[in-house]
Design brief:
By secondary structure, this protein is mainly alpha-helical. The protein contains 15 helices and two strands. Helix 3 packs across helix 9 and helix 4 packs antiparallel against helix 9.
């Protein structure tokens, strides 16, 4: 896990700087929406999705750092838009995100909605400018759009909303989390691998790794919502119970949920052993362990 943190720290400043560069200037008539976009993007976060994009490319080993950085940042813009919209009163109605007032609390609901819309559109503008062969770039855009849309993250959010107050089974819960959280994580990782020219067999293996850590990440989130530290999380705990949402602990119990997450991580670590050893594969193995040991 230590190598994961070391490698992540190597890339974080570049990710943060590039994210700010990709948001249009504030000194325009529509500048307030850009300020709202920048507010949420600059609020911090783990930056796991751009990190996964970069690592996905590095594991394969044949892509420019600039291309991987921009693809990863585009996915992070999409992730940030989804958080802004998740926090709105019509959805989770949260007042805090990463220890700061949520976007709609600072800029109002209308501007928060537009800021989210702006980040989503900006992400695809960024992707169209990445210097890659056209057929490879189109495949990356397809993967990310699939992960973010109704066949991915949005579809999972729909299932989540429509399941509130209901007792759902393990299969539907898994499907919801595969879509809501896992699909965009998988898209971030696969996009990097495709950018570097991964073969079909390599893509299948890496997709399985990303599937496992995406699902384990969501299980860990469910556990943190019960027993996490609100100060470290930067938001109150117990929102899942308050919103009557089905979660892994509510369905399986805490210990069985932990065991499920650990099994997913062990398989993910094993998958990476089939690739050439490097700092990137070691960092990805450490990331898998971090997913279930994190406190935020």
């Amino acid at each position: 896990m230590d190598i994961f943190r070391r490698v992540l720290q190597r890339y974080l400043p570049h990710i943060d700087q590039r994210l700010m560069e990709l948001i249009p200037a504030d000194d325009l008539p529509e500048g307030n929406v850009h300020r709202a976009m920048r507010y949420s993007v600059s609020a911090g976060g783990k930056r796991l999705r751009p990190f996964l994009t970069i690592m996905g490319g590095n594991v394969i080993g044949d892509c420019s750092p600039e291309a991987l950085l921009d693809i990863g940042c585009a996915v992070e813009l999409i992730h940030t838009y989804s958080l802004i919209h998740d926090d709105l009163p019509a959805l989770d109605n949260d007042d805090l995100r990463r220890g700061k007032p949520t976007n709609h609390k600072v800029f109002g609901e209308a501007m928060a909605i537009l800021a989210g819309d702006g980040l989503l559109n900006q992400a695809f503008q960024v992707l169209t400018r990445v210097a890659l062969p056209p057929e490879r770039l189109l495949e990356i855009i397809r993967i990310i759009a699939d992960g973010a849309g109704t066949t991915g993250m949005i579809g999972g959010q729909v299932v989540d909303i429509e399941s509130e107050g209901k007792r759902i089974g393990a299969d539907l819960l898994r499907y919801m989390h595969e879509m809501k959280t896992g699909k965009l994580i998988r898209a971030a990782f696969l996009a990097g691998a495709v950018a570097a020219g991964a073969s079909e067999s390599e893509r299948l293996q890496l997709d399985r790794y990303a599937y496992n850590i995406g699902l384990a990440f969501q299980i860990a989130d469910d556990i943190l919502d019960i027993e996490g530290d609100p100060i470290k999380l930067g938001k109150p705990i117990g929102s899942d119970q308050h919103n009557a949402k089905s979660t892994w602990p509510s369905l399986l119990g805490l210990e069985a949920s932990r065991q499920t997450a650990r099994a997913l991580v062990e398989e993910a670590v094993g998958i990476l052993e089939t690739f050439k050893p490097s700092d990137s594969t070691a960092a990805l193995q450490g990331l898998a362990q971090y997913v279930i040991s994190r406190e935020t």
